[in-house]
Amino acid sequence: MRDNPRNYITILPPFQLDASTPQIAGITSDFYIETFSGLPFSTPPCSVFPDPSFSTTINSTFGQIAYKVPGPLSYGSLRLQSSYDVKVGPNVRFNYFANPLDLARCVSATRKIGDLL
Hints:
With 117 residues, the protein is α+β, with helices and mostly antiparallel strands. The chain contains one helix and eight strands. The chain has a single domain, classed as 2-Layer Sandwich (Cholesterol Oxidase, domain 2), CATH 3.30.410. The strands form three sheets. A four-stranded antiparallel beta sheet has the order 1-6-3-2, with helices on one face.
């Protein structure tokens, strides 16, 4: 079993974005980058250092920049825990970074997103 590693960063811009479907923004030999924006949401702010006097709500849309590594070399496994009871979930092991090249490609893609930001 193989699965493409995918990571992303979420951006809360100071202005509203129109919702969009994922769009390919860049392709390299090791990864591709896509972007999309989401619908407005409303959430209370959170922080590692909460301030009880700060009680406003954030109303915003969000944008995401993501990368995906196509054709990973690492592979995992999917094994049934029970051949007769459908309520017993399978044992899934993704094993994303068993091959060091997959990890190197993810690091390279993360650095590229950092450069873009």
